């Protein structure tokens, strides 16, 4: 159950933002084999004063169309799956909504599987009765 937080400069239309959601979901389905409807994503927009990036850090020329994508996944994903995910995200975002690969910045946070079990148990536990 990946959790995605997407950050970008303010001013893009709803269709642009929905295309980001759709492309990321498709990339996860294809590269990570996530189940259907496993879509837990947020987009946060920032004005220019609150969105900073290195325009040429490590020789990559970035623009104001830069999109930060932070993905939290359980540590069951292989290096090959993550590479395939990065590649597919860049391809699909390039197709729609038209983001250059240089403007796609992906950060993956890995969490232990035990957290899934613990959270699932908490979610399934009935509320304590008040006596």
What does this protein look like?
- The protein is an alpha/beta fold.
- The protein has a single domain (3-124), classed as Macrophage Migration Inhibitory Factor (2-Layer Sandwich).
- Helices cover 37% and strands 22% of the residues.
- It is built from three helices and four strands, in the order βαββαβα.
- It has a four-stranded mixed β-sheet.
- Helix 1 packs antiparallel against helix 2.
- The protein is globular and about 40 Å long.
- It starts with a strand and ends in a 7-residue tail after the last helix.
List the defining traits of the structure above:
alpha/beta, four-stranded mixed β-sheet, globular, 131 residues, 37% helix, Macrophage Migration Inhibitory Factor
SSE topology:
Elements lengths: L2 E7 L4 H19 L8 E6 L20 E8 L4 H17 L8 E8 L1 H12 L7
Parallel strand pairs: 1-2, 3-4
Antiparallel strand pairs: 1-3
Helix pairs in contact: 1-2
């Amino acid at each position: 159950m990946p959790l995605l937080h997407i950050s970008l400069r303010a001013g893009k239309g709803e269709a642009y933002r929905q295309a980001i959601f759709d492309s990321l979901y498709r990339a996860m389905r294809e590269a990570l084999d996530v189940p259907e409807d496993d879509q837990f994503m947020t987009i946060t927009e920032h004005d220019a004063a609150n969105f900073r990036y290195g325009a040429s850090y490590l020789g990559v020329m970035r623009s104001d169309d830069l999109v930060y994508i932070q993905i939290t996944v359980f540590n069951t994903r292989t290096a090959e799956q993550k590479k395939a995910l990065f590649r597919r995200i860049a391809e699909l975002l390039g197709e729609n909504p038209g983001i250059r690969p240089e403007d796609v910045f992906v950060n993956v946070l890995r969490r232990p599987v035990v957290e899934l079990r613990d959270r699932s148990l908490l979610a399934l536990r009935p509320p304590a009765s008040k006596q």
